[in-house]
Inverse folding.
């Protein structure tokens, strides 16, 4: 269900404005209405609150400080470090200053104590990392040409260039030699050797006076030259190799030492830096929200929404801090404002995971029915009816349990496994109804353990492959019931939204459907023939109401709704396809010999389980969202986003002080800072 | 040909067509929706849920085709 919200107006003298904003920010329960935007669109007795020059300067200063803090946090490589909620809150409180100027000065001072040291260590680390990367790149190349380099002794007048070429192009060295002889007037030599299975190394020695034309030729011929890094460029290859191997020994040690120093610095300062980043972000957010408020000549006006249960606390806090100077009033919402009201869900732990699924399709409008609890009820039913296999259900439930055990801390895994856990349990329940355990394993062809029972004239378990038609009627009947429920909820929604026409349209359509069922049932002798006349009367009444509510085009809704009902036949079709595939998999053990057959059967069952997870999920969601919710749910709302500090918003759905995800946010924030 | 056998072959043939034609139509529609959906998701990832639902929409054709084919097949026995 949706949380009941209250619209509030907070009015007070301008000198108290920033203190009120800071209080609202710390309370974390007010969803601010953008009065600035509203004043531009409507004729209101208030003006938009303007950001003055000093606030702009403060904002700029705080942004610069935030950039510096972010730089320091990045240098600490803090991604993944976690701190307890209490530790973060304590550090936050130590840094927090109501006064932005005082805060800037405090942060400036703290940054000054660590910035230069962290920048120095970070620069040194980068330097060593670059060097190590370069050395790692050159070491194997120089090692390859070592056997040649030792043979070459060059004097000051000669230059040498190392080349690496693929062995299959080795013959090209002769052509290269001929070209170089022309350029250098035979003052050159090429020595080559195979260094591994694929590579040949060559060193070209030539008179320095021909350096430019030789290099030009080599680059034109696209020859892979070994270019040494700037510091080693003047060294002979064997000396360069010695230097490289020497540095390869020392650089990792130096790097480890620098990283240790960074870690020590980080241990001392990271929490403080994160707290500073949080505080600066919060202060900047407060400054950013200023244009969302209104003002008169002497007073400020703040409007927004709070969950009704949080209103007394908001009123109490404002009263305690500002007495009668600042007034909090709950205002009556007009119809237009009801549509603008933000939406917060309040569902129990079983329904909550489905909020995430429904978010993909929109947010319900405030004041209408929340479809999420219905999704939590109908999704497992539809899924279970489609899969309908004890074995497959067990595999799904056990997989969910194992995933939950393995990834205890992952919120996403919790949500997904809860949804599939419920769906798998429903699959087991319907599997009992259909007598399916990995297809027809329990049936007469294999284990033959099924005992048939008769309940109210229906023989159970119901074999899906044999009872196609009854199952088709059951699923289409389920569709009809679901559509009727959807239309009745649509009437209720229309009453809640005070939309008379919609109520008549949905009610007329529901009546028309009932009338059609009565007439069909009477014609099929399910009901006595006398029911035909009242059926036709109801049909006429229903169509009249439908035309009154939805116009002539509303009549087409009848065909659409019949299509929606027939769409539920997919439950039978997909279920049957799955059951047949499972039967085919079991049949493999007979036709191909037991050993090979069982392997192929297992593979086919595995494939069928994967299909059974993906396809029924999509179809069960689709039946909910498109067919069922399409009859009543109204999307287009926007979610409740309270104005809160980085230490966490108030949780609108519980009486807890702050949202549950606060603890997990600690890591996220660090990562966010690093990525920013 | 035995008229009974002819009827059975005819029914089986049309049961096949009842699945095959909507299957082709579904594949065609899903290919179109899939490419358009992939383009949309590149621009607006937030509509992923709606794209998945739209992708599943044409499956109704082949599913209903399968239902009709199943109904035809039941009359073969």
């Amino acid at each position: 269900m949706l949380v009941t919200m209250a619209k509030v107006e907070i009015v007070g003298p301008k000198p108290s404005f920033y203190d009120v904003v800071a209080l609202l920010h710390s309370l974390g329960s007010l969803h601010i209405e953008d009065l600035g935007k509203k004043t531009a669109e409507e004729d209101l007795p208030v003006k938009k609150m303007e950001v003055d020059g000093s606030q702009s300067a403060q904002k700029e200063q705080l942004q610069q400080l935030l950039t510096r803090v972010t730089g320091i946090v990045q240098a600490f490589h803090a991604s993944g470090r976690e701190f307890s909620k209490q530790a973060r809150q304590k550090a936050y409180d130590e840094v927090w200053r109501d006064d932005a100027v005082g805060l800037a000065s405090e942060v400036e001072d703290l940054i000054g104590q660590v910035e230069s040291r962290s920048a120095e260590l970070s620069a040194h680390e980068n330097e060593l990392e670059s060097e190590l990367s370069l050395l790692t790149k050159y070491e194997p190349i120089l090692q390859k040409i070592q056997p040649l380099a030792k043979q070459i002794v060059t004097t000051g007048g000669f230059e040498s260039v190392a080349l690496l070429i693929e062995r299959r192009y080795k013959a090209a060295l002769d052509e290269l030699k001929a070209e170089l002889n022309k350029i250098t007037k035979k003052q050159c030599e090429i020595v080559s050797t195979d260094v591994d299975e694929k590579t040949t190394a060559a060193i070209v020695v030539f008179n320095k006076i021909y350096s430019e034309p030789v290099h030009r030729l080599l680059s034109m011929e696209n020859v892979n030259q070994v270019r040494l890094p700037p510091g080693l460029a003047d060294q002979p290859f064997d000396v360069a190799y010695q230097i490289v191997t020497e540095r390869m020994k020392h650089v990792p040690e130096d790097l480890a030492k620098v990283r240790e120093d960074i870690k020590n610095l980080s241990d001392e300062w990271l929490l403080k830096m994160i707290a500073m980043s949080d505080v600066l972000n919060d202060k900047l957010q407060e400054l950013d929200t200023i244009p969302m408020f209104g003002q008169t000549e002497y007073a400020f006006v703040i409007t927004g929404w709070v969950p009704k249960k949080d209103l007394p606390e908001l009123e109490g806090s404002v009263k305690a801090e500002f007495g009668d100077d600042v007034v909090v009033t709950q205002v009556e919402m007009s119809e237009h404002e009801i549509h603008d009201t933000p939406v917060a869900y309040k569902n129990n732990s079983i329904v909550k995971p489905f909020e995430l699924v429904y978010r993909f399709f929109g947010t319900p409008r405030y004041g209408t029915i929340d479809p999420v609890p219905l999704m939590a009820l109908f999704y497992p039913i539809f899924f279970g009816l489609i899969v309908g296999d004890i074995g497959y259900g067990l595999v799904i439930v056990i997989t969910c349990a194992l995933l939950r055990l393995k990834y205890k801390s992952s919120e996403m895994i919790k949500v997904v496994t809860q949804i599939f856990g419920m769906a798998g349990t429903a699959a087991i329940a319907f599997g009992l109804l259909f007598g399916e355990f990995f297809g027809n394993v329990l049936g007469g062809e294999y284990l033959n353990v099924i005992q048939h029972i008769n309940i109210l004239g229906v023989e159970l378990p119901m074999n899906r492959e044999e009872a196609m038609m009854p199952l088709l009627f059951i699923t289409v009947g389920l569709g009809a019931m679901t559509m009727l429920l959807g239309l009745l909820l649509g009437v209720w929604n229309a009453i809640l939204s005070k939309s008379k026409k919609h109520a008549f349209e949905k009610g007329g359509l529901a009546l028309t459907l009932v009338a059609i069922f009565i007439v069909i049932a009477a014609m099929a002798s399910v009901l006595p023939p006398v029911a035909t006349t009242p059926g036709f009367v109801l049909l006429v009444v229903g169509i009249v109401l439908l035309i009154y509510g939805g116009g002539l085009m509303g009549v087409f809704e009848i065909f659409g709704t019949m299509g929606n009902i027939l769409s539920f036949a997919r439950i039978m079709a997909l279920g049957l396809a799955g059951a047949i595939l499972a039967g085919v998999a079991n049949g493999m053990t007979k036709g191909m010999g037991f050993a090979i057959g069982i392997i192929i059967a297992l593979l086919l069952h595995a494939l069928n389980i994967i299909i059974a997870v993906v396809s029924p999920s999509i179809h069960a969601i689709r039946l909910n969202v498109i067919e069922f919710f399409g009859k009543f749910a109204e999307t287009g709302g926007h979610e409740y986003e309270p104005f809160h500090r980085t230490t966490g918003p108030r949780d609108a759905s519980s009486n807890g002080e702050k949202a549950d995800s606060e603890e997990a946010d600690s890591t996220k924030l660090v990562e966010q800072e690093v990525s920013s | 040909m035995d008229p009974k056998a002819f009827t059975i072959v005819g029914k089986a043939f049309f049961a096949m067509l009842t699945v095959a034609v909507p299957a082709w139509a579904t594949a065609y529609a899903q290919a179109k929706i899939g490419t358009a959906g992939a383009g949309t998701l590149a621009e607006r990832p937030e509509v992923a849920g709606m794209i998945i639902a739209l992708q599943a929409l044409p499956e109704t054709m082949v599913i209903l085709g399968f239902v009709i084919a199943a109904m035809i097949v039941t009359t073969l026995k």
